[in-house]
Amino acid sequence: MNTAPRTPLQPVLLAGGSGTRLWPLSRRAYPKQFVPLLGEESLFAATLGRLNGLEHAAPMVVCNEEQRFLVAEEVRNSAIERASILLEPAGRNTAPAIALAALEARADDSDPILLVLPADHAIPDSAAFARAVEAAAAAAAAAAAEDGALVTFGIEPRSPATGYGYIKAAAGEGVRPVEAFVEKPDRATAEAWLAAGGYYWNSGMFVFRASAFLEELERHAPAMLKAVEKAHAGHTADLDFLRFDAAAFMESPAESVDYAVMEHTKRAVVVPFDGDWSDVGSWQALWEAGIAAGEGDAGDNVLHGDVITSSTERCFLHASHRLIAAVGLQDCVVVETADAVLVAPRERAQEVKKLVERLEADGRTEQDEHRRVFRPWGNYEGIDHGERFQVKRIVVDPGGCLSLQKHHHRAEHWVVVRGTAKVTSGEEQFLVTENQSTYIPLGTVHRLENPGHIPLELIEVQSGSYLGEDDIVRYEDQYGR
After folding, report:
1. CATH of 9-273, one of 3.40.190.10, 3.90.550.10, 3.40.140.10, 3.30.565.10
2. Could you tell me the pTM of the whole model?
3. What is the pLDDT of residue 194?
């Protein structure tokens, strides 16, 4: 049965994030929505996939500058034909981000129904999701003549969770008015709400007409709307991206959509959602999502990668590069990456944010990027380094092209191990194929391109007095950096 709403929706995916709660898999430059935490696809890809069961327009994605090419690559690899990518000049929380999307949706004088989705949630039951969206879209459309309802999704609580905000709904069944948005409770309060009924976890997903949201924003947060309108009026197109006036956007208060609008509007209604859902906001939540998806072993352990266990129960063990061998552990989290290992009791794993703050205070880089760093043309990974040398593995996607550049302090040696490289070195251009190499002297203007149809892989050996990533002078760059 087709459960899609009759009116095409305008999906808006919120893809910002600081990458702190699921460190070390998630980093500031590579937050959790781009990490394959549940299965082989990322949370962002799964969110795009959920749109397949709906009748919808080309999605809008709101993200920050650093993740723009990650978003573009995820969209390119999906079944979505195209998407508008809106770049926040800075993170100002969800209300200004949604306001940008609503203004862009109204730029052609239309007034679509927006489906606002965080891009980092896990919702395995696509059919239940489609039914809830259908009910929400019908409520938003039916109420249009009465100034439009603002619909939020309330998750049927499965436990007295203290990590979520709650929504108190009016008595009744189905779609009904919101009586209150309430903050994260303590355990006793959550248990009382669960026993009383009528309370739902606040999902952060919404459906409303663009005009209805903007009207309520003007009513309850006029300074925010004024700043975002000014930022949107100064927008420019850059490749596949829309950029907005940074100075104007920074004038906006940094507030969530709940705080700015939903807690104050009289037009809020809630659609109960009874399917499995997780915001994957902690290692505990990720373990619970794995158990709910049937990924647990006989000891209720959720295992990813090369892991062996003995007498181990209720643990989340994730190996990215090396073997994890666990003996006698209970209720623990162990996460291994190329440059960091996290070990914590599962119920205290949310305290990882304190570790990230410590890393930042100590001037370290592990909170920002993985050893493998993603770029619009592909990625590179540090293999070894020492005094006056550094070795990297570089992968350039088909058609990818590094900027025309030079370095003041280092020379580079390139050895191609797969594919074909087109090299610019000074006035020369030539091809370097598998098992061949070339040398780029210090100060030489150069460029690396992949003209082939398979990824180009090479080993780069840098040598010189300074090897920092900021030793680069760009002359041309097709990605606008």
Report:
1. 3.90.550.10
2. 0.88
3. 94
